[in-house]
Design brief:
The complex is a heterodimer. Chain A is α+β, with helices and mostly antiparallel strands. Chain A is built from 18 helices and 28 strands. The chains are: A alpha+beta, B alpha+beta.
């Protein structure tokens, strides 16, 4: 029997053993009234301001189950989509609990107030915050549970608690008494939860800091792992949607006769789509009839009311705008620019990018009069639960949102508009209005995903830098043009200041002491945009690190020495990461074969610094990346094996941005790409050797999911400059036109 | 009712003639280990074996497979995850999100059977599957480990300790 053994107070209704998933949710909703997991971590994240409310008492609920067979199940308050939290977060609890790691399992928690990110105040997997924000939270849960087990054993054995030891899931008394955690769980549940608890000294860690293998590696190697796409509610039908070719356009006329004639197609209905548009949904017994049904539709679209973006026109507009100052972000004296001894003038171009996670979006909806159950690989449970409720005409507590293992996401599953979930509920509504009852499973094709918007925004940067005769930067005027990610969303009040979205300019300037005069233009365009792994740093790091490299060359200094000179004294972690990468790479010591060159870049994002020294060459006019040496400063490295994987993955995604065809473009409002055949992503033949080195530290861990991405492309570009003398200012790279 | 021999069992299914094998396997036979990633044979997440050959099932009509042909999916590669490639995969912590890995493993299993001494160039040629998480280096390493007799200890983990620490 499953025992939910840490449980008390306002959520006592869930304390009975054998609590069902649904009962569990009710408990969470009740707790939502008076219980906020306002677990404070000052300055921990970008949305920390949202938490400027009184910190409330933290009450553990349903984070941990110990079964009679000693199995420890940890509820992970995040989405697992490759980054390893289903392993690393249980590690945090198991460390303090002193559980037997071989008996620990991770489970993905459904939407629930108790699972909100302690720093962000909403349930989210983002901002590289899983470990960074829940490091203390999860350790405390483990430590409190251990204290309760010890208290129960002390009572039973009539010995002082201090004399009881815990070893690998077993309590050991002074006279040799022994009990497994599972055997003591019932008694421990009757103990009060200690208000405070002492956490381990890092020198006593047995799991944290060790390369621990993923708990899900085996199921993911045998086909057993169930993803959202694999989930089927009883009798559920598959829905495929014909969405408007231009964002927000509407159906003018539809002839569904051919679609309805396809065997397996049950119904064809008009449905509201994202951004006020409408589309046509084909609902069938399976994906294939639904998809062929969609192809058989004859739809006339009304695109008269929506703007039709064309990328070439947009680029010209952005470039023109960049010649004028925008809203100020930071100011500095630019008076010495005009008379500077050396000048750098540069215009950078970045395209829209699709996330293209391997598992296309999908969502199962079971809508009833009094409630709605949804299964989705959501990165944004609190927001999605609210949006599902609003669309269904329900209260959030009437919505059960089950978190499904997801095949990647990179930001696409954390949408402030909850686009794909709202659409799915709208489909369920029209389906039921048409007299049907079965749950609906909405499946996106890859084409739907590539064309579906919510891209990394396109950007133009314009920089004018002046250096004096000694190579000192004496003036730097910089303008950024692009769309705001958070404007028009609930995050706008927190993120947009003086008309500038913080996510557009993050990463500019730091860690260098430079007189950067920065402004930004926020452009509105009918293309939905979104955070894409490492957000603003996807472009700001490229601009900063290639410009600093260019300044180093203008100053006739070694780019590493130049960076070290230009960094502020407080940039100790930057220095350590850069020094480590340089030392391990052979840079400055080991000569490379002819035709190869080193390139260097570093960047801080999500409070982690990653420095790359790369080796590149050019073959048949095409850039080739051979090797990456990473210096990573993420403070405590909770699971180095996961960190290595995150660096490998983020570096590859950063490399992917540079490859020919890695761009989403629009013509007359229509996205021109459709699948992996014309939207390039990196393949095994693109993958360089990657060596990861971590700076040792016992400080509280910082983000790891995203920081490996930003410095890759600029390091590569800097190496290509050494090889070709060309400064690449446009992504993806095009050496021939540079 | 048409029939298919999947993982050694002959099973009946009903689908239109143009239905790709992938959707019959996933929706009719309820073997969901084989994944849909692109539908145009680009990513390889749907890779299964037909008579030992790796095939992208998302573009292969189920009606083109005879009941005599033997289909093997990830579920049938071994009953218990004991195929050398699967063992190497788990030992080297290859999967991240894991969505592409069934296809990766099926492609790799065919490669190491055909080329037991496979080189990096062989891996480059055979492993055209897409992974967005960046598992490629561990994929490569796991294949080398598997062909060396499946001793994962021989490969070691790239990260065994943190620089300068005694961990």
């Amino acid at each position: 029997m499953r025992i939910e053994w840490i449980n008390h107070g306002t959520i006592a209704s869930a304390s009975a053993s054998g609590v069902s998933r649904r009962g569990f949710m009710k408990a969470g909703a009740v707790a939502g009234g008076g219980l906020v997991l306002g677990f404070f971590m000052p300055g921990a994240g970008r949305w920390a301001n949202a938490q400027q409310q009184a910190a409330k008492v933290y009450e553990p609920n349903a984070f941990l189950h110990i079964a009679p067979d000693n199995t420890v199940t940890v509820q992970v308050n995040r989405l697992e989509f490759g980054q390893g939290v289903q392993t690393s977060m249980p590690m945090l609890i198991a460390e303090e609990l002193e559980a037997d790691w071989s008996q620990v399992k991770g489970a993905l928690a459904p939407a629930g107030d108790q699972y909100k990110d302690p720093a962000f105040g909403i349930q989210i997997t983002g901002g590289s915050g899983s470990i960074a924000h829940s490091f203390t939270q999860y350790r405390e849960i483990g430590a409190k549970a251990r204290a309760m087990l010890i208290a129960a054993a002390a009572e039973q054995w009539k010995v002082p608690a201090e004399q009881i030891k815990t070893v690998k899931g077993t309590l050991i008394g002074p006279a040799g008494q022994k009990a497994t955690y599972g055997a003591m769980a019932d008694a421990a549940m009757k103990q009060p939860v200690p208000a405070t608890v002492k956490l381990k000294d890092p020198k006593h860690f047995t799991l944290i800091g060790k390369p621990v293998k993923r708990l899900d590696a085996r199921d993911k190697s045998t086909g057993k792992q169930q993803f959202g796409m694999d989930f089927k509610a009883p009798d559920s039908k598959v829905a495929v949607v014909a969405r408007p070719p231009v964002f927000g356009a509407k159906v003018a006329k539809v002839d569904a006769s051919k679609a309805k004639a396809i065997k397996g197609v049950i119904d064809v209905l008009e449905v509201k789509t994202d951004r006020g548009g409408s589309g046509v949904v084909v609902i069938a017994d399976g994906y294939w009839p639904a998809k062929t049904g969609r192809e058989a539709l004859a739809i006339e679209w009304d695109t008269s009311a929506v703007d039709k973006v064309s990328s070439d026109k947009q680029l010209a507009e952005y470039k023109a705008l960049s010649q004028k100052p925008g809203n100020p972000v930071r100011t500095a004296d630019t008076s010495k620019l005009a008379g500077a001894a050396k000048k750098i003038s540069a215009v950078y171009e970045f395209p829209y990018l699709a996330h293209a996670p391997m598992e296309p979006l999908n969502c199962v909806v079971d809508l009833r009069k009094d409630g709605c159950t949804v299964w989705a690989g959501s990165q944004f449970q609190t927001v999605d639960q609210g949006a599902i409720a609003a669309t269904a005409g329900l209260k959030p507590e009437q919505v059960v949102l089950n978190t499904m293992m997801a095949g990647g996401g990179f930001g696409r599953r954390a949408v402030p508009t909850s686009d794909y979930l709202v659409e799915a509920v709208n489909i369920a509504k029209v389906w039921q209005a048409a007299g049907h009852k079965e749950p609906i499973k909405v499946v996106w094709s890859r084409e739907d995903d590539i064309k579906g918007g919510y891209y990394r925004p396109s950007h133009v940067h314009r920089a004018n830098i002046g250096l004096d005769a000694k190579g000192e930067i004496v003036g730097w005027d910089h303008v950024i043009v692009g769309q705001s990610i958070t404007s028009g969303t609930p995050f706008e009040p927190m993120m947009v200041k003086n008309g500038v979205d913080a996510t557009m300019v993050e990463g500019m300037g730091e860690p260098y002491e430079v007189p950067l005069n920065l402004s930004a233009h926020t452009v509105k365009a009918n293309v939905p945009v979104l955070w894409w792994r490492s957000v603003g740093s996807t472009h700001t790091a490229f601009v900063m690190e290639t410009l600093i490299d260019e300044a180093a060359h203008a100053a006739k200094m070694d780019p590493v020495a130049y960076r070290q000179k230009l960094m502020g004294e407080k940039a100790t972690r930057h220095r350590a990461a850069l020094d480590l990468a340089v030392a391990k790479s052979g840079y400055g010591k080991k000569a490379l074969p002819k035709g190869q060159a080193y390139g260097v870049a570093l960047h801080e994002s999500f409070n982690t610094v990653v420095a790359y020294v790369v080796v590149a060459s050019v073959k048949d006019g095409q850039p080739k990346l051979h090797k990456v040496t990473a210096g990573v400063h993420c403070n405590t490295a909770v699971n180095p094996l996961t960190i290595e994987a995150q660096i490998q993955g983020a570096a590859l995604m950063g490399l992917g941005m540079t490859l020919p065809g890695a761009a989403i473009t629009l013509k007359d409002g229509v996205v021109e790409q459709q699948n992996f055949s014309d939207y390039t992503v990196a393949r095994i033949t693109d993958m360089p050797k990657i060596d990861v080195h971590i700076v040792p530290s016992n400080d509280a861990p910082t983000g790891m999911g995203e920081p490996g991405l930003p410095p890759l492309a600029p390091a590569f570009a800097n190496a290509l400059f050494t090889l070709t003398g060309k400064r690449l200012r446009k992504l993806p790279f095009d050496l021939a036109s540079a | 009712m048409a029939k298919l021999n999947v993982n050694g069992v002959v099973r009946a299914f009903e689908a239109e003639a143009d239905t790709p094998l992938l959707w019959v396997i996933r929706e009719q036979l309820a073997l969901t280990g084989t994944k849909y990633g692109c539908g145009v044979a680009q990513c390889g997440a749907c890779t299964v074996h037909i008579d030992g050959q790796p095939v992208r099932s998302c573009v292969y009509p189920a009606s083109a497979v005879t009941p005599e042909q033997k289909i093997v999916t990830i579920e049938g590669l071994s009953s218990d995850g004991s195929h050398p490639i699967q063992k190497a995969w788990a030992a080297l912590d290859v999967p991240q999100c894991g969505f592409c890995q069934s296809g990766m493993i099926m492609a790799a299993a065919a490669l190491v059977r055909d080329k037991p001494q496979c080189t990096d160039a062989d891996i480059d040629a055979a492993m055209t599957n897409i992974c967005r998480c960046g598992t490629y280096n561990r994929v490569r390493k796991a294949i080398h480990v598997a062909v060396r007799g499946g001793d994962p200890a021989a490969a070691g983990l790239a990260i065994e300790r943190i620089e300068g620490s005694k961990a």
